[in-house]
Amino acid sequence: MDDLDRLSLKSLRTVETVARLGTLGRAAQALGVSTGAVSQQIARIEDTMGRPLFDRTPRGMLPRAEAADLFDALEGGFARIGAALARLQRQRQDVVTISVAPIFAARWLVWRLPDFHARHPGIKVRIESESRLADPRREDLDFCLRIGRGPWPGLEVEPLFDQRVVPVCAPTLAARLTQPADLAQVPIIREPGAMFDWSTWLDAEGMDPAQLGDGPDFPDASMCLDAAIAGLGVFLAFEILVTDQLRFGRLATPFPRYRTTGHRYVLVRAPDRSLPPPARHFRAWLKAALIAEGLGDGPPMSPAQGT
Questions:
Q1: Nearest-angstrom CA–CA distance, 233 and 172
Q2: What is the superkingdom listed in this entry's lineage (predicted)?
Q3: Residue 25 is part of which domain span?
Q4: Residue 51: how many CB atoms within 10 A of its CB?
């Protein structure tokens, strides 16, 4: 603690910024000071520590390996401070922030937000929709909605529902399919990067994916879904992706037997934060909305839905 007492927060912030950005010039610009001021701060803290923290090279300031723990701690610490300040600001504004995958946001969540706003007109929902896995411990996020098998170490995890899949296609194509073996006679739409494959559904039907025919490939599930709506073939879709399309009649399930993939949707959040009221309201609404649609951990599925 004696060493920490001798170091100012300003100096530690300067060290973190230089380590993250790599040069004195970029750090100075980010901090709104001169390059000379940054250089002096680094020299001062190195003198206090009694050792160099960076190697000065023509390419910039290279953090020394022996100081890696310090740099990691500073980066994480300042990220948490920034997130805490942002949360404090949001609590005055009644904002809840959730990170979700783009496809979940576009195909399910945004269509149900009017109901949330009708129930909680004073709360604003901010959606961070990116493919990357955001870290609620370091970012200004109340929740992250994730899917997988886990574990999610260092996070508080609240299970929501199992991922289930079912074959879907345009209604005109579904009318031609009377038994699973008929899938060998129609185009099959595939997403090469999917976290499950056709064996997830076919195993229970006594079929092998090799029996399926060719068909178009698309880079993501959203495009595959649109291809199925357009009549290009049969797509093995996860349930939450097709809920609305089935209800509106744009898609049909020729064989309405849903199979679980072994993956699960969960809400994760930082374990050391209390949830502000807007976040608690959103969590309760989300779980109720999922259960109302048969997706959450509510009443058992009917035999027609399950396996």
A1: 11
A2: Bacteria
A3: 2-77
A4: 10
Beta bridge partners of 147: 265
Same domain, 21 and 112: no
Answer yes or no: is 127 within a domain: yes
Same domain, 271 and 178: yes
Rounded Cα distance, 264 and 161, in Å? 6
Token look-up 């809840």 returns 96
Token pair of 43 as six digits? 């020299």
Residue 142's closest CA among 217, 91, 216, 76? 91
Q: What backbone phi and psi angles, to 5 degrees, belong to 224?
A: -60, -40
pLDDT, tens only, 95-136: 899 999 888 999 999 999 999 999 999 999 999 887 667 788
**Three-class secondary structure of residue 111 per DSSP:** coil
* Tens-place pLDDT, residues 189-215: 999 999 999 999 999 999 999 999 899
Residues 99, 134: contact at Cβ < 8 Å? yes
Per-residue tokens: 169: 């296609």
Backbone angles phi, psi at 116, to 5 degrees: -65, -45
Q: How far apart are CA 67 and CA 155, in angstroms?
A: 27
In this structure, what token pair is assigned to residue 284? 């309760």
Contact 298, 279 (CB under 8 A): no
CATH number at residue 22: 1.10.10.10
Joined tokens for residue 44: 């001062």
* Residue from 251, 242, 235 nearest 175 by CA: 251
Establish if 88 belongs to a structural domain: no
